[in-house]
Design brief:
The structure is a homotetramer of 376-residue chains. Chain A has 376 residues and is an alpha+beta fold. The first copy, chain A, contains 12 helices and 12 strands. Chains A, B, C, D: InterPro entries: Gfo/Idh/MocA-like_OxRdtase_N (IPR000683), Gfo/Idh/MocA_oxidoreduct (IPR051317), GFO_IDH_MocA-like_dom (IPR055170), NAD(P)-bd_dom_sf (IPR036291).
């Protein structure tokens, strides 16, 4: 694991998610550039001190030197964004599979460098678009794909947080600090951090591609260098219309990712904060509540579930679905055909990363433009 | 009453709302241009046949000729939009107060004609922006106005219906028919019918004015002449950002009007379909659910309530609040100062009508423009 | 109207409910035994001072002396419980129809006296079991009756209020005062006031009769003379089992009347505080949300609705359904056969009143008994 | 691990819960008395074949013979109920700590045998009353304990499932089969399986002890030998009143465990199917929604959380809180004082097991009795 030492948030989640199904074991790490912090983190995690490395490069070199059955199989990169590219490229080059946090990189060019490295290496590159790991997101995707709602007309996605409502990035909050720093976060602030999740979810579930967008990026908190609020209109290929709203200054909101998709005969609504219910509404009959592990699920949904109905699964379990699939892909071996969407071992990866970094760049362009529509 | 005969929808609601508090009694009507239908409607409502008039003009002339204490006080205009202006102008000119359905008119010029007539007549002109009559909408407005959330940053409003998902306007549905006919509906389809409600609610509660907007109007159902789907980005004076979504093709949705407003320290959410709860979320403390007739309400909210807490009030009661206030203003007499927002006898009226018709015109202009922002 | 003067709660609701559909007009009243209060109440309601009577008996005598087309048709009795019997008997005897608040009387013997008077008079006697007027309660009843869920096994009903959590009955709250006084409230406190509603709803919707019960009555607030909290187990004919919980000391609860019924293949849940949704859950398919004015309703539900889907109706509208049906029964005339459950002009009446007063007496007996089961 | 082989439900949950925080590693097992199934289960879990034992006794003997740092530390007993006692006693006697599924045993005498073995061994015995591991159950408990609601008056708990609505126990469903077989399940059916959870939660959160109860046990599905439906009235020491409802024939219900507790000034509601919200209602101020990882939590709640607010945690995480605490207690070593309720390393254990088995026996007695109240 790269990053994710004491006080970090997402590293602990990765570890729990990887551990859940017994497919992964944490064996080595370079948790922090601060040597003491690095050592403490490794110790707290019960690692062999010899495998708690001072730098990422040291880890790659040392692990590579170990016998094949003793070395790590993959690297989880849970650092701030600016390290995603160099670390991913190095790890892939050194023959390790990579599970990388989103956004993929600082910009599209970096993402393309990762894509090239992945292609050259023959290694797996998975990207933590965690929300696509939720069972009922898969159910939603499968139902749209099989035409339950007819042709899709409307896609509305929102991701509403409030934790950056105050200038905590200047008051020592480390999570906030790097996320609002262009050098470490990249082109987008809120846009890169959660706007990419929203965009990914919208295209993933609707099965449609955004053709053009019209964006308004705002920085509400004085002195902040990157956007903390994103609004945009979307036009999809085929005529569907959409709205994407992502914000980190909706004071009091927690992690409100919500998706609605409507077709000719009905629509669906899914909300991350109550992830075990998928609401279906119909023009001609009563609304239905599809429940995790309840009746009526697609097979591709069912194999993403661990508990019987009414025993809620959450964020870590969604994440674990990515780690389990990632392990399955690695076990399948090089040369195995790319798994289809919905397949047990599908994970978001290079294509999703390139698409979302392209989205970030086109959104920045749109926000700076006087023209209404910017092609994507 | 003008319009609202057999088979109409909103006329019956007006009658119920007006009757609820005992302030109004239906005394005369011109319900339909079809004589038999008109007569049947009057009889069903228990009216004296002599006061069921063949035309609106006949009603005005005959009622005006009655002694002051025998004639009607006011006219409710519940016809399709194209009759709002001529009827309002005529009624005001004949000395009657007017309660008019929204949108105010076919376009801004017509709205201005009504405004002029109202000013010249000294009569009251109330406009049925019914949703502003809900007690917890008043609570929301009052809390924003007194600064509970700090400076407002985000305003999100949506109005989601699905009943026009199919071309029922060509299959004999009268409600759909005139609403999709430019000659009777005016410049906007969904925009005029419900987009105006959404816009009115957003400005009414936030207390902010939209300075510019960027709109996408779509007609999803082939052959329909007016928009059935509206999306737009909003920029408010003072820097707040907004999104407005109104649609009549969200298949399966009912009457989903929902407003969210966020300021520096918290935000509110109100949903018309569960109107007796106002959710408040805070940066630093647990969310609160403010309930109709529960503890903690503003005085201006309390006097819009009729039942003790837990006994739900609904749409008719919200509407009745407008009728009650309308009666109170009339009783107050000519020359009484304009009631403040929140006052017991405040109603939406000329200013709200002009503002929303202006909004309709600017939205049409934006939708036709290649430029991103159109001033409002 | 008898009772319901200034400061009363339910009188104003009766007036609004009666006015809503235009079937009724308030023409006379004896609102209070306090002459000044009585006069003020009548004036505030716009009544002719001559028809604001000092006593109920004076009202009956004077109205009876008026020509048939000038006198009142019916009397609404909205007084404390101890007056229900004498007033109902007198009104029926004087030839007036009666709409009476629940519970029917102080005890079963009184209820039987009303029943006898109603039978002798040929007049209508309707009882304000208001919750049976909700459209989706009718939907629930109709679905159970037509066997949607198979044989019924479980009936769970609860009515949870908190307003009597403190001794406000000793602090001048008039509503609390008479409801906790055995002389005016009758045998039961919470039991009579809301336990009867819960019991009525349970039998009305399930279509089953309670055969035996086991009750625990408690007075939590020191010094109170009647129960403020009711719990009981129910056994229904045919083997279904039930639980009834009614309380007025669930601090913070508003008016939480909730019913659940389960059969062999599914179940339903309805909650009065969100009355426009009926949840159906199924063993073999996803849950459904049946919505007021949405698709899939029984005809008997549809004619209890006034607004299109998504425009919420509430408590007053439910009440108005009783008043509308009461008017229809009166218009139908003496000798008309008793309307069936679900029929447009069905109202709760004598049979419901006798049954619920019997329930009150059997509950009191059970609470005082050491035996587990008391026959009903 | 004892039990929990292929096709079992709760074994997999235990493994995930134990793995989540990295405190435990599955090292050995006796998963099934069917040798092939046992072997396949062990292999699927990646165990060394030498530590996949044919019987529980073989496992204890072999592991005990290993060096201290190579043997297992604890045994998870996830078998049907009839094996809990012999396996627990044997494991404790052999010096292993035990995490045992609930109910503790077939009857109270067996539970007492475990208690004696635990006391004699000095080993930890933890019991999987999983729901007490939810963070917001701890929050509820802590708030009641510190007096937020004043003296408690009402405790209502329900646990509603529907999966046994049909005779699936006779159609090859293994989960259903043993749970409805007195020889393997014990005295109670639904009562032992989920009634014990409900009772434990009610006493755990309210901090009160049930003094007497009045129970109705029913078997709705013909031919079933144990109860599938439980209703009872509760009287708590100090005067609080309660209702407990547990059922496995509420067709369509999933795993509806819900608790409400009301005191003099307010109350709380928690529902296992949406476990990240705790609703607080107050007599004098608006209701609050306390959220997992949101503001206002007790310290004892906070250390049971793994994700930031709005990232839902679920059933496995609640279970993992027990496993984490169990590990902490073991690390603390013999002789460490019993951790207080709320402490990081508190787990349900012997006392909870004895209490709930006593409850089962008293409920059976009550159900068979003609007397209303049975002392607990």
């Amino acid at each position: 694991m790269a990053g994710g030492g004491e006080g970090a948030f997402i590293g602990a989640i990765h570890r729990a998610a990887a551990a859940l199904d017994g497919d992964w074991q944490l064996a080595a790490g370079a948790f922090s550039s601060d040597a003491a912090r690095n050592a403490r983190s490794g110790e707290a995690l019960g690692l062999d001190a010899a495998r708690v490395y001072p730098t990422f490069d040291a880890m790659l070199a040392a692990e590579r030197a170990l016998p094949a059955d003793a070395r790590i199989d993959a690297v989880a990169i849970v650092t701030p964004n600016h390290l995603h590219m160099p670390m991913s490229v190095a790890a892939l080059g050194a023959g390790f599979h990579v599970m990388c946090e989103k956004p993929m990189a600082l910009d599209l060019a970096e993402a393309e460098a990762i894509a090239a490295a992945a292609a050259a290496s023959g290694r797996q590159f998975a990207l933590a678009f965690t929300y696509s790991g939720y069972p009922l997101v898969e159910e939603a995707r499968a139902r749209v794909a099989r035409g339950d709602f007819g042709a899709i007309r409307l896609v509305q996605v929102e991701y509403s947080q409030g934790w950056l409502s105050r200038p905590i990035d200047r008051d020592g909050n480390r999570q906030a600090e790097w996320r609002t720093d262009p050098a470490r976060a990249g082109l987008g602030g809120c846009l890169g951090d959660i706007g990419t999740h929203a965009f990914h979810l919208a295209e993933h579930v609707s099965g449609l591609r955004v053709e053009s967008l019209c964006a308004d990026l705002t920085t509400h908190v004085a002195g902040r260098q990157l956007d903390d609020d994103v609004s945009m209109l979307l036009r999809f290929a085929g005529g569907a219309r959409g709205v994407l709203k992502a914000t980190q200054v909706a004071a009091g909101d927690e992690n409100g990712l919500k998706l609605r998709v409507h077709g000719e005969s009905g629509g669906l609504e899914w909300s991350q904060m109550e992830p075990n219910t998928l609401a279906l509404r119909w023009l001609d009959r009563p609304a239905e509540l599809v429940r995790a592990a309840g009746p009526g699920l697609a097979d591709t949904t069912a194999h993403r579930l661990r508990t019987p109905s009414g025993h809620p699964e959450g964020y870590i379990e969604a994440f674990a679905n990515l780690y389990r699939a990632f392990a399955a892909r690695i076990r399948a071996g090089e040369g195995t055909p790319e798994p289809a969407l919905g397949a047990a071992d599908w994970t978001p990866g290079v294509a999703d990363g390139l698409r979302t970094m392209h989205f970030v760049e086109r959104t920045i362009a749109s926000a700076a433009s006087e023209s209404k529509w910017t092609a994507v």
